[in-house]
Amino acid sequence: MGNKNSVEKYFDEYPDDVDEIDVSFKNFKYLPNLSRFKKLEILNCRDNNLNSLPVLPENLKELYCCDNNLTSLPDLPENLKELYCCDNNLNSLPVLPENLKELYCCDNYLTSLPVLPKNLKLLFCYNNILTLLPILPDKLEILYCCNNYLTSLPVLPENLESIYCSYNKLTSLPVLPENLKLLFCYNNQLTLLPVLPENLKLLFCYNNQLTLLPILPDKLEILYCCNNYLTLLPVLSENLMELYCHNNKLTSLPFLSKPLEILNCRNNQLTSLPDLPEKLRQLSFLDNPINEIIYYDDINITKKEIKIWNNFRYLYYCLKYRKIFLKMMEPIIKKRYHPSYLDDLKEEDDLDVKLNGW
Q1: Which of 117, 152, 166, 181 is deepest in the core (most CB within 10 A)?
Q2: How far apart are CA 71 and CA 91, in angstroms?
Q3: What is the pLDDT of residues 42-90, one digit of tens each?
């Protein structure tokens, strides 16, 4: 269907007042003049062999032209709200209309982006050769800029809920917005993370150069912090369900949250593990000193073994430092149970009640 007659014939079948045209996967090498389609709102020409596009109808609202051989785009109609131009050979984009809400320009050769419209909510520009991003609009909700050459990010808008900035050259992140729920910043050169927002649920910060983590928000459910240089972890969120902290330099772990289902802490310097939660169903702690004492077999057996081991450890330290503990406690005990505690005993007081309190 790639010759001229078949293309023209195919489009001739559409009436002038059609509002949607779908010519995806037709192996077309060009599109004919579209000027007669005054009411066209959706054009889907993805997965063809197009090198260029004709002038676009004024009322067009959605354009899907991914997976072609486009090196440029025509002027965009003012009413356009969604632009999907991924997987082409684009090295630049035209001026973007103010009404644009979704921009998908990933998998191209873009070195920069034009000014972003104020109404933009979704920006997907991954797999390009971007070194900088323009100012981000206030209404932006999702930023997906992975696989570029970014060394920094611009100021992040307050409405942003998801950030995907992995596989870049970032050494730091800007202040994170309060509404942020997902942060994927793995495979960068980060040495520190900013304060984490309270609403954050997923944090993927593995494959960086982190030596510590900030305070974890209570709503955090999944934490991937593996392949860093962490020597300790902060207090874990009460809602944490998955913890991947393998390939670090951890010598201990904090108390594990009750909902935790997955724990991977292999290849660290752990000489012990905290008691394992009942809901835990996946566990990996190989390549740690503790692995020489406790071997992973059945998850339930391992839970019991770790609990027994911890009881012995607590007993050992209690016995080892009993003199210090007694010395510390002696003044408190004397103050609490010295007979002078009963000096203010009155005739009408109930002696049994007083002694019970003593």
Answers
A1: 166
A2: 7
A3: 999 999 999 999 999 999 999 999 999 999 999 999 999 999 999 999 9
Contact status, residue 285 vs residue 298, Cβ threshold 8 Å: no
Number of Cβ within 10 Å of residue 352's Cβ equals 8
Q: What is the pTM of this model?
A: 0.86
Q: Are 178 and 196 a contacting pair, CB within 8 Å?
A: no
What's the CA angle centered on 243, arms 242 and 245, to 5 degrees? 160
Domain span at 297: 231-324
Q: Are residues 105 and 126 in contact, defined by beta-carbon separation less than 8 angstroms?
A: no
Domain count, the chain: 1
pLDDT tens for each residue of 211-270 = 999 999 999 999 999 999 999 999 999 999 999 999 999 999 999 999 999 999 999 999
The answer as to whether 79 is a domain residue is no
Q: Would 222 be classed as within a structural domain?
A: no
In angstroms, the CA 72 to CA 88 distance is 9
**130 within domain boundaries:** no
Residues 6+ apart with CB under 8 A from 59: 38, 39, 40, 41, 77, 79
Report the interhelical angle of 322-337 vs 299-320 (nearest 10°). Answer: 70
| 24 in any annotated domain | no
Beta bridge partners of 224: 204, 244
